[in-house]
Write a structure and sequence with these properties.
The protein is 20% helix and 26% strand. With 268 residues, it is an alpha+beta fold. The protein has one domain. The strands form 5 sheets. It has a 5-stranded mixed sheet with strand order 1-2-5-4-3. A 4-stranded antiparallel sheet has the order 11-13-16-17, with no helix packed on it. Strands 6-7-12 form a 3-stranded antiparallel sheet, with helices on one face. Strand 6 and strand 7 form a beta hairpin. The protein is globular and about 60 Å long.
């Protein structure tokens, strides 16, 4: 039934459930996080309500913080439902995109970049994750403090996970080649690249072919010609039908010409 729900709503499971499946630690998650496209949210919630899940009003806590702004970190809405009998909780995280994945790649760290689709299990940073290591993800350089993200990062540290620094700042000219691998934050990633680990439920089907192709680049550091170090925020690109491509991020368009030139020096 669960896989059918994911298939019909083009949704995925992420969060602690996906992490525990990819890297078992003995943790028993107390809720289920469903990520769905913006176009499927009402239908998904209606189906859950028909299965005795009851919407739980989100408590508004003032003053509002940056995490509560619709669209921040590619999250259009956050809905909570509780089963009327079992009291199990499902969170429905609504993406700002036709893909359910941008909120996952806008998460606080690579620990969150695992998910279960109707057709398989994906881990985008498998080697780091299985070593209890993760890299923080910078999604908004204009907002220095995002309280809820900091709380989430602290929660993973209490569980025994550790954060490591990613690759060094990328410069236009450099004496040695830039690192390649999971620690590199500058290269554009895809679900079908050589880093992502995928376990398909059916070897003849791939999840990446069932929703708009989604690419991402994590937040990273760049070194400009004057030795100034700047931050480039996370960017996610969703390729829709035809030539309709959408860029997602908190401050899309803030990448300067000089910063774009540095990214172009990368080779696959």
């Amino acid at each position: 039934m669960l896989l059918l729900i994911l298939d019909r709503s083009n949704a995925v499971i992420s969060g602690s459930v996906a992490l525990e499946l990819v890297h078992p630690t003995g943790l028993i998650p107390n809720n289920l996080d469903l990520f769905c496209p913006s176009t499927e949210a009402n239908a998904l919630c209606s189906f859950l309500i028909s299965r005795n899940y009851v919407p739980v009003p989100n408590t508004i806590v003032y003053p509002l913080i940056i995490d509560d702004i619709p669209g921040q970190n590619c999250i259009e809405a956050f809905r909570t439902l509780r089963h009327a009998v079992r009291e199990s909780i499902i969170h429905v995280i609504v993406s700002t995109s036709s893909s359910p994945l941008p909120p996952i790649f806008s998460a606080h760290s690579t620990f969150m970049m695992n998910f279960i689709s109707a057709n398989g299990v994906y881990s985008c940073y498998p080697t780091l994750t299985t070593q209890n290591l993760g890299v923080r993800n910078v999604t908004d350089k204009m907002v220095k403090v995002q309280p809820r993200r900091e709380l989430d990062q602290a929660k993973y540290e209490r569980r025994g996970f550790s954060f490591v620094e990613g690759c060094p700042p990328l410069a236009e000219t450099r004496a040695t080649p830039h690192p390649v691998g999971e620690e590199c934050l500058h290269r554009t990633r895809t679900l079908t690249d050589s880093i992502t680990a995928a376990l398909p439920f059916d070897i003849f089907r791939s999840s990446s072919s069932f929703w708009p192709k989604t690419e991402w680049r994590l937040g990273c550091k760049l070194k400009l010609s004057g030795e100034e170090i700047v931050t480039a925020e996370t960017l996610i690109e969703v390729h829709c039908d035809g030539d309709d491509d959408w860029i997602h991020g908190n401050n899309v368009g803030r990448l300067s010409v000089a910063e774009r030139a540095i990214f172009r020096t990368l080779t696959i």
